[in-house]
Structure formats: C-alpha cells, structure tokens
Amino acid sequence: MSTLQISAADVNKLRQQTGAGMMDCKKALTETNGDFEAAIDHLRKKGAKVAASRQDRESNEGVVIARASEDGKRGVIIELNCETDFVAKNAEFVAFGNAIANEAVQNNPSTIEELYNLDIDTENTRVKIGDAIIDKTGKIGEKIGVSKYTVIEGEKVIAYIHGNFRLGVLVALSANAAGADEAGKDVSMQIAAMNPIAIDKDGVDATVIQRELEIAKEQIRAEGKPEEMVEKISAGKLNKFYKDSTLLNQEFVKDSSKTVAQFLNGVEKGLTVTAFKRVALGA
C-alpha cells in the first residue's frame, strides 16, 4: 500500500490559502488524502477547538476601530480583542478589525450577534464574521472576539482613532457645514482627551447630579461655612462640574478662550453636537 506524498508546493499553497502553519497544513493534507477543500475544513475545525479551549483566557488587548459611512450619516466603533499586545500590533490583526468595521458600517447590524452573522471576505471566499473569528483564533492561537460595538447616526458623523488603535471616538454634528470634517476631528480629539460624560448638562443623569451636590455640600460643611450658604455654594460647584464634565461647556483644548460650544458656533452659527461615543480599549 503506497503512502500519499504531500509536496512542499501543496503545503505552501494551503498555507497561503489559510494562513495556518506549515506543519498544520501538511498534517491536514495528509489526514484528508490531499483533498484541499477537506483540508481547509479540517483546519477550520481545529480553529474551533482552539477557540473552545481558550474561552477562559483573558483577552484585554486588541484594537478599537471607528468608521463613518461614506455618506457621513452613520458611524460605528468596534473593539476587537486578543490576548497579547504582540498580536494587537500585528498588521494582519489590525486589517481584520478594519474589515469587520467596514462590514458593520455598510450593513448596520443592531447587536454583536447580528454583526457576527454578517459575511466578510477572507483569503479566497466570504464567510460569517463569527466563523472568521474562529479561524483567526485557530491560526493565531489566542482568544479573539468583538467585545464592544456601538453605533451613532446624525447629519454629519466623524470617526476618529487615537493612540495606535487604543481609543475610538464618534461625533455627530447637527449639520454638514463647511469645515465640518475638520471641526468634527477637533471635537473628537477633545472627547478623546477630556472624556466628557454628556453633551450638555441636560444629558447628565439625575443620580450623578445628586451625588455631585451631596459631595459638594459635605465639602462646604467641612470647611466650616454657615448652613445658609451651603445651597448657594454647592450650586456654584455644580456649575463647575458641568463646565469640566460636559462637552459643550468644556474649554476647547485648542483655544482655552472658548468653550466647545463657542468654537462650533464660530464654524457655523448654530452648529452643535447631537451625539458622541468614546470607546477606550479595555475600559
């Protein structure tokens, strides 16, 4: 009985198609009698086994990708995680994250589960994103997955990626004004640096306001101020909180003589922010 000879060319061809290691490709071809399609399935099943074996591993590294649609009406952010910084910085892993974000912004899924059911281009075919993630897990040997997915819509949405894919920002402006792209990028950088909790004071949760007031009052009493002054001084402290913590009231980082609201109004009268999202890796 003759033994099937697997050539180096065949192994290399399968490696180019799948990205798997040389020895894994040779073993897959041997076990499937040289059938390329069966060998690809074999490697994919192996990837699923690797994925299952790494479910209890921490995957806190990765990339954050922000992307706006071509018409500027919608934007998405995804966080694609892996286990090590080494993999996160790999160009192929970053490209994979970009490809997932592209599918998300084009197809507008509502949830991560719906995102996983979208098709994505791989080396030689289109597969479900969920299956592609399993394949990547088998190839790379690390737990991989999308942990965050967020969407905003607006008249003009700008996407910004900060810190070598460590943080992504989306900002929606009220109009597609002249200079909106540059202004949106400036506001996105503001959001990245200053991490506001809301657009304006009206967007701050009531429980947060109450907590800030209570803290302010305790501080004022601790300073020995008379009780009749507590309400007035605490109101002033709350206004300071709004100035520091809400986007439109913050000092504009590129010109501290203006607030963000004043900066935008200078770009076009009435221009403002209608929505924003900020996603930091691992946060």
Topology of this protein?
Layout: H1 8-18, H2 22-31, H3 36-53, E1 61-68, E2 74-82, H4 85-88, H5 91-107, H6 112-116, E3 119-121, E4 126-128, H7 129-140, E5 145-153, E6 156-162, E7 167-173, H8 180-194, H9 206-222, H10 227-245, E8 251-252, E9 255-259, H11 260-267, E10 273-280
Antiparallel strand pairs: 1-2, 2-5, 3-4, 6-7, 7-10, 8-9
Helix pairs in contact: 1-2, 2-3, 3-7, 9-10
Q: Tally the helices: what do you get?
A: 11
Order of helices and strands: HHHEEHHHEEHEEEHHHEEHE
Q: What can be said about the biggest beta sheet?
A: 3 strands, antiparallel
What overall geometry do the principal axes of the alpha carbons give? elongated
Radius of gyration, whole Å: 25 Å
Strand order, main sheet: write it out.
Answer: 1-2-5
CATH superfamily of the domain at 56-153: Elongation factor Ts, dimerisation domain
End-to-end separation in angstroms reads: 60 Å
Strand content: 15-25%
Helix content: 40-55%
CATH architecture of the domain at 56-153: 2-Layer Sandwich
CATH topology of the domain at 56-153: Tetrahydropterin Synthase, Chain A
Mean pLDDT across the residues is 88
Structural class: alpha+beta
CATH class of the domain at 56-153: Alpha Beta
* Low-pLDDT windows of residues: none
Number of strands: 10
Please give the oligomerization state of what you see.
Answer: single chain
